[in-house]
Every structure is written in C-alpha cells, then in structure tokens.
Amino acid sequence: MTSDTESRPAAARRGRPGYDQAAVLDVAVAAFNEYGYDATSIAVLAERLGISKSAIYHHFSSKDALLETALDRALSALEGVLVSSDAAAVSAADRLELVLRGAVHVLVDELPYVTLLLRVRGNTDVERRALARRRAFDRSVTELVGRARDEGSLRADIDVRVVERLLFGMINSIVEWYRPGGPEDADQLASDVVAVALDGLRQRA
Amino acid sequence: MTSDTESRPAAARRGRPGYDQAAVLDVAVAAFNEYGYDATSIAVLAERLGISKSAIYHHFSSKDALLETALDRALSALEGVLVSSDAAAVSAADRLELVLRGAVHVLVDELPYVTLLLRVRGNTDVERRALARRRAFDRSVTELVGRARDEGSLRADIDVRVVERLLFGMINSIVEWYRPGGPEDADQLASDVVAVALDGLRQRA
Question: Which residues mediate DNA binding here (chains A, B) (predicted)?
Fold first, then answer.
C-alpha cells in the first residue's frame, strides 16, 4: 500500500523522496505496536526511516499528532461501516450482520491501526478522545443489537450490552493471531464470525 | 478469599502473621497486572505488603517462582474444566457447552490470575512453559469442536481452528470489562456466551 510511492505523481508527495506522510505513519504505527507509544521517540522513528527528525516534523507537528492521525484512520474505518450498513440494509438484523462483516474487513485491512487503537488506555487527551469515539461506536452497535431484538430477529433473553461486548471481544481478538497472507481470507473470516455469532454453531434440526 | 486469614488455624500459615502464601500471591498478581511483571520488583512487593523481602522469599524462592505459581493456578483451573466436562457429558457438543460455561466461571473466579496468564508473551522459560500449556488446552478444545462437528451437532462449514480462536477470543475478552459484584453474575454470563456461540443470536423460526 505504501511501497508503490514510485507510481504516485511527485506533486502528491511531501517531505523527502520515498517518504510521504502515509509511509511515515505506517512506520510509526509499526514501532508504536512493537515498543509501545511511550517508548518510541521521534528520534527512533527518524532512525528507522533513515531521515532526519525535521523531515518527520514536516509531516506531523508532534508524536501526539502521529498517534491522532493513526487512531483516526482506524476509527473512521469502523464508523464508516456503521454508516454504509445504514444505507444498505433494511432490517436491524441485516444491518448488524453487515456491521460484523464490515468490522472484520476493517480489522484485516487496517490490522496495525486497529491493533494500536485496541491498546489505547486513555493516558493523554488524544487517547481519551479516541476512547470516547470507540465508546460511541460501541453504543451505536449496542442500540442496533437492541433494535434487532425488538424487531423479533434476535432472541429476547439477551443483555444487549453484554452481547455487544462479547461480539466485539470476539472480533477484536482476531488481531492477536491474524496474519495477512494466511490461509483464512477476510471474507471467510467474516463468515465464520457470523456463523458463530448470529446463526450459532449448532446444527439446526 | 484472602482477607479471612484470621479464621485459619495458625499452623496453616507460613511467614509473618497475616500474610500466608496465598495472600502474598494475590498482592503480587495484582501488582504484576498493574505495573507489568518486569517493572515489579520483590522490593516493591515487600513495600506493598509491609513486610521484608526475606519474608517474601520465605514463601517463594524468586519472582519467577511467584509468576509460575500464579500461572499454574489459572492453567490448572482451565485444565480442570476439560477433565470435569469429560466425566460429565456424553456428546461432544454437550462437552463443548460445559467447557465454555466452565471457562467463563474460571475467568470470573480467578479474574486476576487469568488476566496475568493472557498477558504472557513468552519472554522467560516460565512464560514459555505457560504458553505451551495454553496451546495444549486450545488444541484439546479444537479437537472437541472437531468431534462435535463430526458427530453432526455443529455445522459442517466451519474451520474448527478459527472457531476455537473466536470462541476463546470472546471468552477471554471478558477480563477487559468484567468486574466482580457487577450486575452480570457468572451463570448469566456463561449463558450469554453459550447463547452467542452455540445457539446463535438469531431467533429460530
């Protein structure tokens, strides 16, 4: 995704040749995930990229700005799933299925960015804003589970808040073992999640 | 569980009055979870407990021995679920349901110990042995999912390894939000997990 900078028009690039904003961000997110955000300095990033610190500051005003851009990418992708499911489906149950499938795709497509998001603990203003957006997303999904239950599509004996947590606990756990290029592609993985969560593993009579 | 040391016979205690081995372990596990294993020294534990370092060494020969005992507690409880499900149930599907319910109960009953286990990354021999036992547990559950599928109880279109990961991804995520004394008790939580995972959320026609 970021290795084909050669094919982009030169005018679209900022900073030193070969390192546009997206490439700096990819390297930063990989380092944050490997060493932790606090332990990763701009100097370490500059060394990894083989560029100067000021070349990084050309793209991002601070380490916090890097983090904010990275977290926004994961959150915007997840929020986009809610928006597009709203446009596509009629029943709440169908929307919920689209949201679960879409979230699996976001996780696979933006694996390092979602991994970073899931590690945020709220230590800074940037992290607290990201957590607030994640909570708003969770609330929207919880409401959707409630509507699907109220329309009679989902069983009535469930606590919608607990179920939302279990569903996203399951989906988020994928970051711990999924590796791109493995035997399981995103479509199959999304189908497995729906099989477990909505249809149930038990064979129907 | 550890605050009622007063009611135990004095002969059962080791070390200074009020701090038996279990109490030292509880405090150590809480500190490991809060600050990380590497960042927690025996000196920090001694300060937290208000006892000397040698009083801790009276119970545990090293920090590694503390970690090993703590991880063994979580792993033994999980392995016990497999053993007791084997004795209780006939079909593989019934066994799987017992394992899922039992694992939720272990998680609730041994929350700090399971939390510690789930953070192990394999940096030391003790951690690597714990990871090997966890993998053996996961393999046993994966085999059980496979047998339940082969006996016709579970749908045939699933990847048993992915399903096992999704099931325990969901169960393990409970450590991130479950707090003892909350509105959801362990039985209800176990039923919610089974509702999501085995029966499926969708209302059956």
Answer: 41-60
Residues of chain A found within 8 Å of residue B199, distances taken between Cβ atoms = 155, 200, 202
Which residues on chain B place their C-beta less than 8 Å from a C-beta of chain A?
Answer: 93, 145, 148, 152-159, 162-163, 165-174, 176-177, 184, 188-189, 192-193, 195-204
Contacts B195 to A, Cβ<8 Å: 155, 157-158, 163
Residues contacting residue B129 through CB under 8 Å, at least 6 positions apart: B68
Of B153, B173, B201, the CB nearest to A172: B173
Residue B159's pLDDT is 86
The CATH superfamily holding the domain B5-60 is Homeodomain-like (1.10.10.60)
Token output for B121: 């990354």
B153/A193 touch (CB, cutoff 8 Å), yes or no:
no
* CATH 3.40.50.970 matches A64-199: no
Residue B69, Cα to own-chain centre: how many angstroms? Answer: 12
Taking only the tens place, the pLDDT of each residue in B44-70 is 999 999 999 999 999 999 999 999 999
pLDDT (tens digit per residue) in B127-180: 999 999 999 999 999 999 999 999 988 888 888 899 899 999 999 999 999 988
Q: How far does B160 lie from chain A, in Å, by closest CA?
A: 10
Mean pLDDT of B183-193: 86
Separation of alpha carbons B159 and A202, rounded Å: 14
